[in-house]
Amino acid sequence: MGVVAVLKRSRAPRAKRAREPLPPGAWSRLAACTGAAALLQLDGTLITVALPSVAHGLGVSNSSTAVVLSAYFIAYALALLPGGWLVDRFGARRLALAGLGLFALGAGAGAVAPTIGVLVATRVVQGLGAGLVSPAALAGAVSGFPAARRGAALGIWGASAGIANLLGPVLGGLLTVGLGWRANWWALVPLAVLSAVTILREVPPTVHGEETSHPVLNDTVLTASFVAALTFAVMIGCFYLAEQYLQRAAGFSALGASAVLVVVALLVGLAAPFAGRLVDEHGERLPAVMGFLAAAIGLVILGIPGMPLDSPVTLLPLIPVGLGLGMLFVPTSRAALNATPLASHGRTSAVLSVGRLLGAAVGAGLAGLAVAGGVDASKTHDALLIACAVCVLIGIPASTRLGRGVPPPGEPNVVGRDERSIREAASAG
After folding, report:
1. Whose CA is closest to 380, among 240, 234, 229?
2. Buried-most residue among 202, 213, 338, 422 (CB within 10 A)?
């Protein structure tokens, strides 16, 4: 009876906090900011599909178009940390609007670029804009949610990334085939304008911009960023291996090989909302451990010598891989954001994004080394087994260091001053 009583007492505050009412406009604010972040995801896949046509249209080699992507991501990464500080200093709405303006300007200029050099320069402008939008969008998205309910918001956030990654190749292919490669850049302009209008309407002007003296590099943020980096290292590394093996060894077309990534992206999008509910109920550790464990199960099956890597059977072990990776987006974001005050969420979001970009770069680099001498089934199996070992030996232990998820009531980061003032005004009305 004593144990039952203790369990009831421990569950009661959690249930009460989970039912805490949200301030007015929390969901519409989340939708506006999620749309801006999805635009950044859409850009990568949209432009990637168009690159072969870019090479033909501008009279350059296919390999030289890689700089179109790398210039964007380098500028994106360099702008993140300053962008996060600016979000905390001037507010999420201002920085999101400024970033979307730069992004739209770069996209419009890229659509009329006469040479590859000019196109690369416009991608730098887009990347700088993305580096401002990314931390502003994440900070603004969760700003209407108390700490105990941020998992649900971040689950929707993660699902939107999966949907954007699904739509990108389809939209990019249709635009490139029907209207030419420049249509991909033109399409980004009205999408950025629409996103800016939505943020202007739905996001309050003073979501942040209060204090910038709070430190953000505490143990929880560093651990969450490390887990996020591991997630992207495994995901991007495996994506690279899949593309290389299917196209170079199995003889798939680029479209056929991309279909595999679409399946994984769909599973990631499906898993994110489920992970959001789990972290709100049980904290970040359980879903993070489950995510790495599920991914490891799928990877170890794919890594078994003799396991087909280019048949319908391959889709079965891809299911736990996709679902597992999808489980990992929400716990890392929620743990880091709940470990810092609302006024520091711009910088916290930037640190998380830097971790993900670094992880993606490391994963792609290591996967490239694994198949540097040529791609065959044996090398691919070995590389997948190494990815499985990373999940088990590094990912799971790191996940156990994440916070338990629901801070005690009264912590300054549970309800920020903006939310508290909105609720007090609503109560008074």
Report:
1. 240
2. 338
Q: Burial level of 176, CB count in 10 A (0-12/13-18/19+)? A: buried
Looking at residues 358-362, what average pLDDT do you find? 82
Q: Give the DSSP letter string of 26-55.
A: HHHHHHHHHHHHHHHHHHHHHHHHHHHHHH
Among residues 384, 370, 355, 166, which one has the least CA distance to residue 272?
A: 166
Count the helix, strand and coil residues of the chain and give each as a percent rounded to the nearest 5: 80, 0, 20
pTM value surpassing 0.90: no
Give the pLDDT score at 128. Answer: 94
* Residue 310: DSSP 8-state: S
Where do runs of H (alpha helix) occur along 112-181? 116-142, 150-179
Residues in the chain: 429
**For residue 343, what are the CA distances in angstroms to 17, 136, 335, 348, 402?**
21, 12, 16, 10, 21
Domains and CATH numbers, the chain: 25-204 (1.20.1250.20), 216-406 (1.20.1250.20)
**pLDDT average, residue stretch 74-89:** 88
